[in-house]
Known about the structure:
This protein is of the alpha+beta class. It is 18% helix and 30% strand. The chain has helices at 2-5, 49-53, 59-72, 75-78, and strands spanning 80-86, 90-97, 100-107, 113-116, 120-123, 134-136, 139-142, 146-153.
Amino acid sequence: PYGINFWPEFKGRDGCRTPMPWKNTTNGAFSDAKKTWLPIDRHHLPLAVEEQENDRSSVLHAYRDFLHLRRIHPELIYGDIHFLYDDETTLSFTRTYQGKVLYISINTSEQTKIISTDLALTPLVLPEALPMGYIKNQQVVLPPCSVILAIVTI
């Protein structure tokens, strides 16, 4: 590996990455070797793929759900973007593709954000692992560190 050839002057990316743990076992089932070039931190083992498979609110399932959402809503991939609102911690925009419009709003703060809108929105169901915003009285309510994706009815 690159890190071996240039060690210790330059270790490449090896100083900031570790193998993916597949199981909560020695070396995360990544390797049968007694010692691997890149060690797996024991704190990462409970986050192994096998462990996350059984937890619907895991990062693994969130990624799978988002990829599915992306596949069934091509406006997320190909859509034109129109920014509606932004401040230091909140961003709202639409993505439009082939006559379909999706509204996306993201709150990265620790406070609830409320954004007024005149759009007719129907929220999409998001992965369980993600705090979700909601619509109330023509306002988008975003709890701390949350997001909302909604179909816009034209």
